[in-house]
Write a structure and sequence with these properties.
Elements: E1 2-8, H1 9-20, H2 37-45, E2 52-59, H3 67-89, E3 92-106, E4 112-119, H4 121-132, E5 137-142, H5 149-157, E6 161-167, H6 173-178, E7 181-185, H7 187-192
Parallel strand pairs: 1-2, 1-5, 2-3, 5-6, 6-7
Antiparallel strand pairs: 3-4
């Protein structure tokens, strides 16, 4: 049986920041610098089946609507470049799909602030889940995004074996219910693969 692991990248980073934070606060994004993602996944799957791992993330670009957004988007592009190099060393393929959207939001204090948000990554991931689905395929999905539920259902109908990997602080029953098996990233497990 062929196995493929599909990672909702920002979702996993957010989950690890939540699990590795102190006193209910999320850890800084840098907590994933040097993180051993492959080690974490291999322990969770606990076998020696050859595994292709794909990390889904947005295509980034520099925005020039304001100095603030130019600086934020340049920083995001640099961080992603570094991060892609790091995960490629772990034999994880980065799939650029969707895009990073810049939008100006109103603050409660008055004034505005520019925010960056990924768009379309979950759709690309859902398409890949369905495209990979067959009775000869085991699809491991790392995400807590319920928007993937229709793709889970379709892949299941096509005969694929589904393993859902989620987070202990936020179990997603709808995805786990459709999956053949569920694994949970716990705080001790998340800490074990953190760079020390």
């Amino acid at each position: 049986m062929k196995r493929i692991v599909l990672i909702d990248g920002e979702n996993l980073v957010y989950g690890l920041r939540h699990l590795l934070g102190d006193d209910g606060c999320k850890a800084d994004r840098s907590v994933t610098n040097g993180y051993n993602f492959r080690g974490l996944l291999e322990e969770m799957l606990a076998d020696n089946i050859p595994t292709e791992i794909l990390w889904f993330g947005a295509r980034l670009r520099v925005y020039n609507q304001s100095e603030e957004i130019r600086i934020k988007s340049e920083s995001a592009v640099r961080q992603q470049s570094y991060f892609v190099n790091e995960i490629q060393k772990q034999k994880i393929t980065f799939i650029k799909i969707g895009y990073l959207r810049a939008r100006e939001v109103d603050l409660k204090t008055g004034g505005t602030e520019w925010k960056l948000a990924e768009k379309g990554v979950d759709v690309g991931l859902a398409v890949r889940i369905v495209a990979e689905a067959s009775p000869e395929t085991e699809i491991v999905v790392v995400s807590a995004d319920t928007d993937l539920l229709p793709a889970f259902k379709t892949a299941s109908k096509q005969g694929a074996k589904l393993i859902h990997i989620g987070y202990e602080y936020r179990p997603i029953a709808s995805l786990s219910h459709v999956a053949n098996a569920t694994r949970t990233i716990t705080i001790p497990l998340a800490q074990k693969y953190r760079k020390t």
